[in-house]
Amino acid sequence: MCGIVGLFIKDPKLEPQLGALLAEMLDIMCDRGPDSAGFAVYGSGKDGTVKLTLRGPAGTDFAAIGTALGHEVTPRDTHAVLTVPAAAEADVRAALKSRFPAIDVISTGARMELYKEIGLPADVAKRFKLETMSGTHAIGHTRMATESAVTTDGAHPFSTGSDQCLVHNGSLSNHAGLRRRLEREGLTLTTENDSEVAAAYLTYRMREGDTLGEALEHSLGDLDGFYTFVVGTESGFGVLRDPIACKPAVMAETDQYVAFGSEYRALAGLPGIENARVFEPEPAKVYFWDRAA
Amino acid sequence: MTLSVTQAVLDGAKLVDLSTSSVRELNAALHALAPDSNETFWKVAHPNGRHAIAAGLDADIDIEIDGPVGYYCAGMNKRGRVVINGNAGVGVGENMMSGFIHVKGDASQSAGATAHGGLLVIDGNASARCGISMKGIDIVVKGSVGHLSAFMGQAGSLVVLGDAGEALGDSLYEARLFVRGTVAGLGADCIEKEMRDEHKALLAEKLKAAGILGEVDIGEFRRYGSARTLYHFHVDNVSSY
Questions:
Q1: What are the chain B neighbours of A267 within 8 Å (beta carbons)?
Q2: Could you say which residues form the signal peptide (chain B) (predicted)?
Q3: Alpha-carbon torsion (A140, A143, A148, A151), positive or negative
Q4: Which end of chain A is more exposed for a tag (fewer CB within 10 A), N or C?
Q5: Which domains does chain A carry?
């Protein structure tokens, strides 16, 4: 069992509340996954820059790292967002690796920031001050581990491409073979986790030219197991359930937002929920919302 | 155990507000009702999708729940009449023994699962596995049902005014299935059967119980049941199990 929440804002007036609304949703889903939690938030970005989300041991002096590298850094507990010119990303990564080997880069993107830690999801959200974050869309996950250990690396979301992330409820049975295939295609996977394979698969498909919707469509044929996925890209938000649909999912749509929850409880506090179109996403059907570029 | 449910009386009903009382308190109060209790009409406010609301009833009472409920609402119900003014989560009326449950919205997966008796009416759609392993319940769905509905259904009836998903009635025993719309596919050992007068009479009885007799044309329904070839293991059928 795991819990998934997602919120895709349509009405810009709601964007400042994105983090606060997601934090409340995540809190309610603690029951479904008390081991660890994580979330990805698509916030603001500056043209020509990328945001690297860094993770370090407790007590890491991220401000000093920012100063040493000469880039803007915004620390949040064990994570920090380093904003660098897009052209300098490779150099910054190399510098981090050589000068600050204890630091992991866990995501990159023009707008996406990603945070995850072990602990009760409500506490994890507070540590990172999720309630203060704004943005256009966000995805969160509460984990009850089944396929790999309870570690920060094993927490969701998984990001295997720029501005791409995935959260998963379920378990995949062909992840080992698929991981080998993806590694041959040049993708880098850093954990033994089955969900990371799903994320990497979507990254691979999109690299080959698929839209997120098409990549999800292809995963119906290539991924074996049971799953409810919620995925994010810089402009989009997608949902897919396997054909048997063992894992729960409920969605709500209003003029202001599209929301996803593993259970309706997670959606009950959203504004205007009483008049929302509440529906259960159908098995093996790709749902996809995209923000007009 | 204390029964400190926050209660008020509204329209002659006991009102329990789940924003101030817990589901455990509500259910404990319902379970503690004496057989001759005059508290036969209960209203539940702010359910907000909470699980197991009014589960385990064994009382001749009416309960009206004002909003969406979570998992296993009115599960194991015996004699109670439960109306849900909203959607229901997984397993509404699961293992119901008798009584009546009316979902005024949609129901999630496994509605009426394993239930032995009573009537479950769903105004909207029910998703996958509606009536899975049903053992005597009557289920009337005004919308459509998802895949694997009535899987291993042993007794009772499933009436669907809309469509049915893949693998309807897979490994069916003696539950009776009536579908007015299209069926995406029949499960193993489920076949269409002739709709004789006795079946039309049975269907009319179920529609009447659901309060919609005369609103739909019985002639539009098709009947599905068990071909009875998989009751006992036979090696020739091994690929069908």
A1: 49
A2: none
A3: positive
A4: C
A5: 3-43+117-290 (3.60.20.10), 45-110 (3.30.70)
